[in-house]
From TrEMBL:
Belongs to the acyl-CoA dehydrogenase family. The lineage of its organism: Bacteria, Bacillati, Bacillota, Bacilli, Bacillales. One of its GO terms (molecular function) is flavin adenine dinucleotide binding. This is Acyl-CoA dehydrogenase. It catalyses: a 2,3-saturated acyl-CoA + A = a 2,3-dehydroacyl-CoA + AH2. Transmembrane segments: none annotated. Residues 229-377 form the Acyl-CoA dehydrogenase/oxidase C-terminal domain. It comes from the Bacteria. The keyword Transmembrane helix does not apply. InterPro entries: Acyl-CoA_DH_CS, Acyl-CoA_Oxase/DH_mid-dom, Acyl-CoA_Oxase/DH_mid-dom_sf, AcylCo_DH-like_C, AcylCo_DH/oxidase_C, AcylCoA_DH/ox_N, AcylCoA_DH/ox_N_sf, AcylCoA_DH/oxidase_NM_dom_sf.
Length: 379
């Protein structure tokens, strides 16, 4: 068992560390205050050929692996979780369904522009009454001639304001209590399609979180993604990969908060010595470091299994669940180590604390992850 990163993965880490510190970190606090979306950052990432990182070169990607993707998300989230989640959702939720289930023609038409950074990827699953119970989808698509007419709404959708099209689920039939759910590729500028950006969020202020409203939106038959009736299954597969992204994001948040806490503890003096000399603070920092290392290792394990073509549903849920709870714990302790200053915006750790909470909710709550793990172990 070899835990050493490959030369390619080390190169990605070095590139992303330099990019995150040089391009992303300087404006992170200002963007958090102003809620400005970092469009310029993603244009620069596009210029670096990062927007299709784990997808084949034939579709405009870089041909990297899932571990490299996790590294990229972690490094972005270490300085700005809003940028991290935007990138993670673009890759794992926007691009991945097209790559996994799209026809060659659909990949050439829709995946290539995503990988080239000409548009951002988004994914429409959650609804006002279908969150953890995604099978409760109420958005409907009715066949009329050679078209489908879609009506309904989606909520908490990342990146949709900057997406030219996205995949979303709709009910296309019903047998008794069982719904037939199908995935469609829908242009966001289609008549009857509205993208509403009006949420006031706890954190991740410079990421784009939207509501989608569809009123008799017409799409052709060729815009079905995968097979009719397989949409729910396809999106569950997609979420497995997305959980690796959220796990990596959580590790990045935790790492960033820990580094700030360690730096502050070394610099801040109380009772004639630095905070880092007090055993109570040392134990906090030791626990933070230990749990981050464990979380990162399990994120990499889930990513490795995915790259090997092995089953990784359980491991994706474990890495997402554990890393998200570590992120919340580490961010909380980072604020505590900073004392009163930790409550103030200028010391950054309060931003990490606010941003971390989403990782326990997005891509399936902690409770849902425990349900999945219990199912996978045979309960």
């Amino acid at each position: 068992m070899n835990y050493e990163l490959t030369s390619e993965q080390q190169m990605i880490r070095s590139l992303m560390r330099d990019f995150a510190e040089g391009e992303v970190a300087p404006g992170a606090d200002e963007r958090d205050r102003s809620k400005r979306f970092p469009k310029d950052i993603f244009q620069k990432m596009s210029n670096l050929k990062l927007m299709g990182l784990p997808f084949p070169e034939e579709y405009g990607g870089a041909g990297a692996d899932t571990i490299s993707f996790a590294i990229a998300v972690e490094e972005l989230s270490r300085v700005c979780a809003s940028t991290g989640i935007t990138y993670s959702a673009h890759i794992s939720l926007g691009c991945a369904p097209l790559y996994l289930f799209g026809t060659k023609e659909q990949k050439e038409k829709y995946l290539v522009p995503l990988c080239e950074g000409k548009t951002l990827g988004a994914f429409g699953l959650t609804e006002p009454n279908a969150g953890s119970d995604a099978g409760g989808t109420k958005t409907r698509a009715v066949k009329k001639g050679d078209e489908w007419v879609i009506s309904g709404s989606k909520c908490f959708i990342t990146n949709a304001s900057y997406a030219k099209y996205l995949a979303l689920t709709a009910v296309t039939g019903q047998s008794g209590d069982r719904k037939e759910i199908t995935a469609f590729i829908v242009p966001t500028d289609a008549p009857g399609f509205q993208v509403l950006d009006h949420y006031e969020k706890l954190g991740l202020h410079s990421s784009n979180t939207t509501e989608l409203v569809l009123e008799d939106v017409h799409v052709p038959e060729e815009n079905i993604l995968g097979e009719r009736g397989q949409g729910f299954k396809q999106f569950l597969i997609t979420l497995d990969g997305g959980r690796i992204g959220i796990g990596a994001m959580a590790v990045g948040i935790a790492q960033g908060a820990y580094e700030l806490a360690l730096k502050y503890a070394k610099e801040r003096k109380q009772f004639g010595q630095s905070l880092s000399k007090f055993q109570a603070i040392q134990h906090k920092l030791a626990d933070m470091h230990m749990k981050i290392e464990l979380a990162r290792t399990y994120v990499y394990k889930a990513a490795w299994l995915k790259d090997q073509g092995k089953r990784f549903t359980k491991e994706a849920s474990i890495c997402k669940l554990f890393a998200s709870e570590v992120a919340m714990e580490v961010a909380n302790q980072a604020v505590q180590i900073h004392g009163g200053w930790g409550y103030m915006h200028d010391y950054k750790v309060e931003r990490y604390f606010r941003d971390a909470k989403l990782t326990e909710i997005g891509e399936g709550t902690s409770e849902i992850q425990r349900n999945i793990i219990a199912r996978e172990i045979g309960c």
